[in-house]
Amino acid sequence: MGKKKKRDYEAEGPNDPSLANGASQSSEKQRKKKSKKTEDVKSPANEMPTVSIAVPGSIIDNAQSLELATRLAGQVARAAAIFRIDEIVVVDNKSISEDTSTETVLNNSDENESGAAFLLRILTYLETPQYLRKDLFPKHNSLRFVGLLSPLDAPHHLRKHEWCSYREGITRKNPDGGSVGTLVDVGLSKNIVVNEVVEAGKRVTVAMGTNRNTDRDQPRKIVSPSTPRKEGMYWGYRVRYASNISSLFKNSPYKGGYDHRIGTSEHGLVINSSELSLPPFRHLLIAFGGLAGLEECVEEDENLKGKTVGDIFDSYLNTCPHQGSRTIRTEEAIFISLQYFQEPINRVSTKYQHVD
């Protein structure tokens, strides 16, 4: 949904002549793929499907100032929180895959960051509860305007007076050298104790239970960040870096990768949201293009030579047909598309809630 680079047409639907040799053929091929996946993919009753979005870091490069770039990143984060996205993958535009970790990309140098690194930093910062940010994020030029952004106000961004069965915390150096356990700052008036030894400065998820007694003789337990989610709570998104499109798929944190991949573009197939039927999936990926769309991202990836968007995605959809503006900005496309996918995703999720 960026600027048209090669073809200049508006997708009208499966019967549009301009789609006859493109999206319509691709959709037929993808329907065959889907039918096979529908038979193969089954999800355990306690495993709700996850939804990931892939966003190009190049959208930051088009911002005219640091403040506007920060506001753009804030819009992406807000969209992810509003629509309960589990993972945001920031895709760079490197032609050759580099298996660089998110931590490597986020160095503490105050030099100008690439668009991808900047977006990673802001997204990670905003997902972090406010009471942990000072410890986890050293001062950095890229964070200069984050105070202007609307808070995510996600369920794990708790205030001091709020009690929840889980809280995010940071481990502290235990002053009692001989004691067993670790002090953790979970944003309450005093630190709590967990029943295991963890080095200081680590972000952890703590099961708080219902007992509001925070004395040291009432130790809590560290749990996986996915534990609250298994109980139906939205617990924020994780952020990951991918050097290009092929790396996006190759380095998925989920076992077996993403079992249904959707690409979005103005050149995609037009289907009403109410008529879109997604196959059962464990891990859904929705990818967005940059200024020149997903097509350019695929063309520039040397690992995908000879392949088209239709070859690497199971579905290739236009979520905003008949657009009045010649361009839809990526941050706008994210809001539009995530609303479009709400009903189809909810239908799949509802099915899983009835699995024995």
Question: Could you outline the blueprint of secondary structure elements for this entry?
Answer:
Elements: H1 23-40, E1 50-56, H2 66-82, E2 87-91, H3 102-105, H4 115-127, H5 130-136, E3 166-171, E4 182-185, E5 192-194, E6 203-207, E7 221-223, H6 227-230, E8 238-242, H7 245-250, E9 260-269, E10 283-287, H8 293-300, H9 309-312, E11 315-317, H10 330-352
Parallel strand pairs: 1-2, 1-10, 2-8, 9-10, 9-11
Antiparallel strand pairs: 3-4, 3-6, 4-5, 6-7
Helix pairs in contact: 2-4, 2-10
Task: Report what the structure shows.
With 356 residues, the chain is of the alpha/beta class. The chain folds into two domains: 17-152 and 236-352, SPOUT methyltransferase, trefoil knot domain (Alpha/beta knot); 166-230, OB fold (Dihydrolipoamide Acetyltransferase, E2P) (Beta Barrel). It has helices at residues 23-40, 66-82, 102-105, 115-127, 130-136, 227-230, 245-250, 293-300, 309-312, 330-352; strands at residues 50-56, 87-91, 166-171, 182-185, 192-194, 203-207, 221-223, 238-242, 260-269, 283-287, 315-317. The strands form two sheets. It has a six-stranded parallel β-sheet with strand order 8-2-1-10-9-11. Strands 5-4-3-6-7 form a five-stranded antiparallel β-sheet, covered by helices on one side. Helix 2 packs across helix 4 (115-127) and helix 2 (66-82) runs parallel beside helix 10. The longest helix is centred in the C-terminal third of the chain and has 23 residues, at 330-352. The two termini are 40 Å apart. Mean pLDDT is 83; it is low at 1-46.
